[in-house]
Inverse folding.
């Protein structure tokens, strides 16, 4: 099967491409290498994949690409590309979020229908839910509290509409607080680990009581791979989470015990759009995908810390980063 992965050089995308190649698929990776964070980091993410003859990387902005040509021979699309981040989606940035998260998704769906693509897997986000007391579940009405969440929800609705009006099979996966090796530098675990390794104070937004359903990247990838092949309900929307939400203070507790028990914490005001609690309901994903999360938070943080240390050692040795591939199902248990 030929699978096109957008956002292929990113945090999740690079792991997904490796997992698909290991399963014998032909993978076409597409990435614009935008400057949301250092493009060289993304290039390092996929450096080792270039050695695989079944992997092709196409560097192009989807908004300017000839999508019909791009999709010739493609059977499945996994659409990970887009602008991430809750706190950066306000103000004039919203135009960019609308373009990259909504309009490009619609254009890709149109081209997929014209080219006879069989399945479209869309990477959505827990941000579509907004804030709420208790557990959140996919059957509840989403009420996003950030422009980013609004764009992801709009894209979800488009994905479902195209299945209802064409032969394209679709599924939207709502990822919850993904962490692990190659995590984006703006995300909490990455920032906290780097601060501890640098012997700097840890900058915490809010009081640390915010609850998040931290989900290890290889579990996310496993669910995504299964979604490519599973027999799913029409226009399915599924939570992909650990099912074990904890507060941010617990995340810091684990990192302190693994790195620096005496680290100083500096608290700042909560960022605009942040919510008090996210908690995925994974029963539907378990049933429809034949999937379950396997990596607990502490173990996953140990893997991520090791990745940070490896990166630092390579930089100190002035060697181009060749990061260890920790793809779905391959993480050491």
């Amino acid at each position: 099967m030929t699978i096109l992965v957008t956002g292929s050089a990113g945090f999740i995308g690079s792991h997904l491409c490796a997992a698909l190649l290991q399963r014998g698929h032909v993978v076409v990776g597409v990435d614009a290498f935008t400057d949301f964070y250092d493009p060289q980091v993304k290039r390092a993410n996929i450096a080792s994949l270039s050695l695989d003859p079944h992997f092709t990387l196409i560097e192009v902005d989807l908004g300017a690409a000839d999508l019909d040509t791009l999709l010739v021979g493609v059977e499945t699309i996994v659409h990970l590309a887009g602008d991430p981040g809750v706190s950066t989606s306000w103000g004039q940035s919203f135009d960019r979020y609308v373009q990259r998260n909504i309009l490009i998704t619609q254009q890709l769906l149109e081209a997929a229908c014209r080219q006879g693509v069989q399945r479209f897997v869309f990477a959505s986000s827990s941000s579509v839910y907004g804030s709420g007391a208790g557990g959140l579940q996919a059957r509840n009405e989403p009420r996003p509290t950030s422009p980013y969440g609004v764009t992801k929800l709009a894209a979800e609705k488009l994905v479902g509409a195209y299945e209802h009006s064409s032969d394209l099979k679709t599924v939207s996966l709502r990822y919850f607080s993904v962490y692990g090796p190659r995590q984006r530098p703006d995300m909490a675990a990455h920032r906290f680990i780097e601060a501890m390794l640098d012997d700097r104070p840890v900058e915490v937004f809010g009081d640390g009581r915010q609850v998040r359903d931290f989900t290890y990247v290889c579990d996310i990838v496993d669910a995504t791979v299964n979604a490519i092949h599973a027999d799913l309900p029409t226009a399915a929307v599924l939570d992909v989470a650990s099912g074990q939400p904890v507060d941010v203070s617990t995340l810091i507790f684990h990192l302190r015990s693994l790195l620096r028990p005496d680290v100083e914490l500096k608290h700042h005001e909560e960022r605009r759009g942040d919510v008090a609690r996210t908690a995925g309901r994974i029963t539907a994903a378990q049933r429809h995908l034949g999937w379950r999360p396997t990596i607990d938070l502490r173990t996953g943080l140990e893997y991520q810390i090791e990745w940070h240390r490896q990166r630092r050692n390579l930089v100190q040795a002035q060697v181009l980063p060749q990061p260890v591939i920790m793809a779905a199902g391959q993480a050491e248990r």
